[in-house]
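TA notes. Do not distribute before section.
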Amino acid sequence: MSSVRFVDNSEKVKKDVKRLRDIALTESAVAVQGNCVALCPRETGHLQGSIGYITGTGAKEGGDGTIQGSVKEGEAVVGTNVEYAAHVEYGTKFKQARSYMRAGFDKSIPIVAAIFKKHLQTGDK
């Protein structure tokens, strides 16, 4: 008589998926940050140098240390806390908008999709 044994690996699978998601999230934040920095208008370099990211995994790169705070698990934030950043991004009545954050994010969409596909669809470690 043969016997069938059931092995529940659901916790291991959940752990693996979470780990791969976190890797993909950090890689994606790096890609978005890079595109935002590349598109950022440069006068003094202060704004460019302040663009950073933080993820819910604790991964953090803040350029000059301006990205602070906490982010929920499974999330990432790319940004800056330089006071005039919004004036550059959205413009003022005296200066035209020079989008670098939204444009950097938009440019990153296919890259982020490929990163998540690589890690979560194929399980690449």
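Switch to the second chain here.
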Amino acid sequence: MRWLQMTDYKIQSNKVFFSVLIVSTIVSAILVVIDFYIDFKSAPIEVYAGFFFATLTISLLSIKYNQSNFVRSLLPTLIFLLLEGIFLNQPRTFSTVVYWFPFIPILAVLMQGLRASQIWFGILLVTYLANYFYVDTILGSTYHLELSSKAYFISGIIFHIAILTSTYLLYNLLGNAYILSIEKNTELSELKDTTEQKSLRLTAFNSALIELTRNPEASQTLEKLFENVCTLAQDSLEVNRVCIWLFDENRNSLKLEYLIENGKTINKNLKITREEYPSYFKALETKPYIMAHDAIAHHDTLEFKDNYLTRHEIKSMLDCPILLDKKSIGVVCCEHVKEKRHWEAQDALITQSLADFIANHYKNEQIKSLLNTLKTQNQELSLNSSMIKSMNIELNQLNEKLLESNESLELAVDERTKELLMQNNQLKEYAFVNSHMLRAPLSSILGISNLLQIHNTSIEDAELLNALHKSTKNLDEIIRKISSTLEDGSSLTRNDIDFIINKHFKETGVE
């Protein structure tokens, strides 16, 4: 049953709505006047007067609450109550009232929409059946009417006027909807064309930006980079002036680095300070962009009014900061002269993309510098590593030699210690001999010497001298023997020395 389904297009027109209210108020006033002169014999004049004042009240309420569904439903409800009141007062008007019922769904369509009209259709159908059973019970299946020709004629005219008015209002409602649809279609067409133009402009900008990114010569120097960025911004945004400013080291001033105006590069030595333009500097550090449609009135740019904007006839400004590591290092400034420019989101997107392109150049330079530093450090570390490796090899060799020397030294020390012990023992023996054994011949010599000095005996000098000579000779042999033995490293005991001494002493006969 899809063919029975209807779509509620929710066609509403305030103009038609107020037209319905005006017509209803006029009709209710006409009914009061006519019923005063010609009795319709359907209801007392008080009912029509009450209907007029109720209609007038609804019209006044609708001026303030015209968008309220409740207020919009009051007039159809009022007409329904009027018709049903007339019927209940005069059941014989059943044949007349039934023709007025269709106006209620029509009013609902004009004032509320299709859904309300469908609801009223159901209500009226139930009411019509109830009225039928009521008439059939009270008057029977047939009944006679008493009609006034004048009243019937005038009510007929009012009925035809109501039909024509309803038809006109429906036509007007549909006409308004048609005109609105044409306007919407025109707006959609213009929006489509604008969207296509924006899309083409963004596509062209993306292509140019990609080409700029892939061209290594475009960023060989900062001046070349700034020139390409300003040219691309001027072509993409169709603005008169594009310039690039950079912060100084203290971030207290901005210096003009590049300016292009109407396709020509202009060299100007300009500088602005934070002290002169505090609001502008603050905006660059806190906002993603400054979109000043009216630069003279905008809070962030009005500080330039006297010194900059008026002098260069600049009406609109679009500035995007150049962010490096989340800190502004400069700004890309697009300026439109002589007439105001209403900036759009895509304009800000294009300008921000160019600012990011400049920031990426600085970032790449930082990365290159860091890579060069790391490369230098790696080379130094590699050289140091080679030197350390070589030193380790030398140290290992020296350590091996030291170990070998230590082993040899230990052996030499052991041997030398043994020799020293032996020599020490020999020295002890020698000391003993010198102090005990050598004293004997030496004492003999001393005794003989004393005898020669003291006694003047009859013994001949030749015998004394001979004895002295032998003692001295023996002593010399003993000393030589001991010295020779010590020099050769041979062992010499006390017994050996005692034997030598005794032997020589026995030969000389000295005790």
